[in-house]
Structure prediction request, 302 residues.
Amino acid sequence: MLAVVGATASGKSSVAMRLAELRGAEIISCDSVQVYRGFAVGCAKPSQAEQARVRHHLIDVVDWNEEFDAQRYCSLANEALAAVRQSGRAAILCGGTGLYLRAFRYGLIDAPERDLALRERLYAEENSKPGTLYDRLQALDPVSARRIEPRNLVHVVRALEIHATTGELPSALRAKHGFHDERVPMHVVAIDWPRETLRRRIAERVNGMLEQGLVEEVQGLRAQGVPSTCRPMRAVGYREVCAMLDGALPAAELARRISQATWEYARRQYTWLRREKGVIWLPVEGDLSEIVEKIGAEWERF
Prediction:
């Protein structure tokens, strides 16, 4: 299976679209926000026209208040892959959520089921004293804490949940798994722009999202009762707009703050992907058409 990955604004979706059109393939999204209905502009969800040109999977599969994690992603992605193969088509995985890529490719660690009561207590602690859960994880399992972004409460809570339920450190469970054997064999290619070029692309993308109605999208979601604290609203871009609407961020600072947060996220994506095994990095020296040609030429060998 071909996987086209890279940082936010690297152009991976454009490359995957072009390859899918050339080869009659279908795309399986690997994005943790595109799975949510109603969230489109801020996560660069493929438009209806694009989805009409190429069939996409794992888009608009859950509502904001539904539980969604790597385990559910893998279950749905495996179903999608089986359906694509049954149709006789090729599948292209495309996205930048490294955890979903790794879990789908190698399988999940042997971890306990969700404990909803425990999660509720942990989130209540965090709401009472922001930062307390990450501080606890740092003291308990610094190896896991280094892997998790402090604001990523979903992953912080899951790590603490694993320890509370099993008595084992999450980092120890990961070490046992090892991520050595591919359950879904993949040829993973990553689009690699010069860093300053990527920063410029990010800024241009953020300006484009604001012009396309990102603020209005968030206003509409909140009017429908979607809280600013739900998981997709905590994603980059959405959380900054919520802060602006709540008066915690000047409107004049919005684009810059989203661009900065997106750049920080892109750096974390690069760090994650650099740790992945067997990733082929494709530097962009001209434009994305050269990447499409390079992958297309190698497709049969994949």
About this structure: Residues 141 and 169 are 6 Å apart (CA to CA).
